[in-house]
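Q: I'm building a small set of examples for a reading group on sequence design. Run inverse folding on the following structure and report the sequence directly after it, with nothing in between.
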């Protein structure tokens, strides 16, 4: 039997963070803690999928409905059939991985079938602002290897040019969060490569992304809002080159690894991303990051405060989490 504790958790962001869907000043999620009779503790944290209307309250309600099975010692595979994909399952899955590692002494990366983990270069994100602010923020981050730039349909080229003026060297992942039209994408594509864009993430809304099958692939295009699980792969084949796997979307590391297997079998390259989150939320995703060509796990850098020991970031180079944190 396990003891289950849950609660809401909120971190203040260093500054208001704006994307095409809106602005946030806090990262709001849920924390799950499991205790067994031998004193082992497993922890998991998740933030849900806001465009699917997940909130801490909805996630906590889902966990409460499954609490009896969780306390009885449900396994990670059985959990996939108990809770739907989303933040609630993500938090519980992470806590199960953690307590399994504590009980067995086998680290999560080894249980996931991976070689000893290495540091990974993570993108660092700049939210939407006026060109002067984005230029200044880019200058502050100009020593990083990869920047992720949030834009919308309102003159994204001027924002990208401002970032490039502030930071001439970093590679750029451009993320419109599904706010563009195919006409805007086609107009911008000839300019983006010259501005150092190496990946375009979810330019169109999922209901419009069939148009992506007909455009040239000078820059790879990554699915985010269009991919949640293996069932989406048939639909997006030929439209995207890369899939962004977020544990909040898949409902945890267990399902995320399944999606990675299925996506790679179909020829997609892999990206791992995050919604928000502390080092505890990033830690399971750091396992998946070992398999990914693109990494965007900068959640702790966007917020004030963190769990300890926090994941270390050196100019965007993300160390693998210490065993005392998770897994």
């Amino acid at each position: 039997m396990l003891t289950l504790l849950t609660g809401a958790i909120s971190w203040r962001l260093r500054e208001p963070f704006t994307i095409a869907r809106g602005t946030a000043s806090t990262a709001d999620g849920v924390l799950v803690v499991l205790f067994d009779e031998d004193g082992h503790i497993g922890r998991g944290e998740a933030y849900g999928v806001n465009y699917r209307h997940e909130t801490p309250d909805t996630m906590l309600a889902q966990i409460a409905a499954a609490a009896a099975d969780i306390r009885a010692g449900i396994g990670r595979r059985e959990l996939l059939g108990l809770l739907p994909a989303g933040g609630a399952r993500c938090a519980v899955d992470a806590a199960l991985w953690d307590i399994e590692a504590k009980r067995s002494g086998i680290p999560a990366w080894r249980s996931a079938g991976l070689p000893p983990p290495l540091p990974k270069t993570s993108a660092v994100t700049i939210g939407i602002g006026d060109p002067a602010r984005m230029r200044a923020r880019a200058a502050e981050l100009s020593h990083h290897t990869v920047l992720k730039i949030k834009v919308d349909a309102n003159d994204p080229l001027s924002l990208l040019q401002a970032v490039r003026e502030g930071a001439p060297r970093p590679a750029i992942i451009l993320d419109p969060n599904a706010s563009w039209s195919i006409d805007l994408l086609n107009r911008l594509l000839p300019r983006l490569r010259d501005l150092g864009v190496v990946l375009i993430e979810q330019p169109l809304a999922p209901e419009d992304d069939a148009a992506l099958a007909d455009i040239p692939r000078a820059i790879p295009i990554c699915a985010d809002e269009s991919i949640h699980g293996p069932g989406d792969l048939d639909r997006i084949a030929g439209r995207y080159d890369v899939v962004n796997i977020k544990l909040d979307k898949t409902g945890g590391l267990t399902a995320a690894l399944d999606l990675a297997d299925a996506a790679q079998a179909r020829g997609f390259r892999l990206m791992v991303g995050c919604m928000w989150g502390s080092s505890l939320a990033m830690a399971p995703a750091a396992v998946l990051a070992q398999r990914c060509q693109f990494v965007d796990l900068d959640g702790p850098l966007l917020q004030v405060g963190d769990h300890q020991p926090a994941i270390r970031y050196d100019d965007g180079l993300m160390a693998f989490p210490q065993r005392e944190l998770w897994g």
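The chain has a mean pLDDT of 96.
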